[in-house]
């Protein structure tokens, strides 16, 4: 019997590729879940609006659960574990994460799962970052760059669709092609797992604190 799992899902490229690899490995993925800033209905870190994540879940044929919490307080870990506990009660045994190579992040995820008696899985773990970036676009996934840290990467990449050419251009600047150190974030809108493409409506581009540029999408 296939292992029942949920995926920690930001709507970006890494968690999507983790979902893809998990399905290829035979996991029975039941649901997606994300943490949300209740004040603005946007996901923590990536800043993707809840409505967009719902559309992505619909296109993937997977329900997406929203955990309203505060990333900057101890409540974040507590709320995260409460959500995981509901999955354990429902017969799910494994939580899938899209982390690549930051040991501290992995350990945090493992601890949340251990506290409620679930197993954690990391399908992308210790895979070369460049390999992952190319695998993502070669598989046919399409994602939009929605956040750029201009301290690490030119703002010209904001609002672009990831492709081999875009990845090579990012690498040519000296930035991490995979964006693993926060150079950029993405939102997925099409690919081999999708029942249909997600229509993203582009809004205004904004400059936030500390040199971050954001492409609003709905």
Description of the molecule:
This protein is of the alpha/beta class. The protein folds into 2 domains: 3-121, HUPs (Rossmann fold); 140-217, putative n-type atp pyrophosphatase, domain 2 (Alpha-Beta Complex), CATH 3.90.1490. Helix content is 33%, strand content 26%. It is built from 6 helices and 10 strands. The strands form 2 sheets. Strands 1, 2, 3, 4, 5 and 6 form a 6-stranded mixed β-sheet that branches. A hairpin with a 4-residue loop joins strand 9 (202-207) and strand 10 (212-217). Helix 3 packs across helix 4. The radius of gyration is 17 Å and the shape is globular. Keywords: Ligase.
Strand content: 25-35%
Structural class: alpha/beta
Fraction of residues in helix: 25-40%
Mean pLDDT: 95
Alpha-carbon Rg, integer: 17 Å
Total beta-strand segments? 10
Main beta-sheet annotation: 6 strands, mixed
First-last Cα distance: 38 Å
- Uncertain residue segments: none
Order of helices and strands: EHEEHEHEHEHEHEEE
Fold blueprint:
Elements: E1 4-8, H1 13-24, E2 28-37, E3 42-43, H2 50-60, E4 64-69, H3 75-89, E5 94-96, H4 103-116, E6 119-121, H5 129-138, E7 142-149, H6 164-172, E8 184-190, E9 202-207, E10 212-217
Parallel strand pairs: 1-2, 1-5, 2-4, 5-6
Antiparallel strand pairs: 2-3, 7-8, 7-10, 9-10
Helix pairs in contact: 3-4
Notable characteristics:
Diphthine--ammonia ligase; 33% helix; alpha/beta; 218 residues; Rossmann fold; six-stranded mixed beta sheet; 2 domains; putative n-type atp pyrophosphatase, domain 2; Rossmann-like_a/b/a_fold
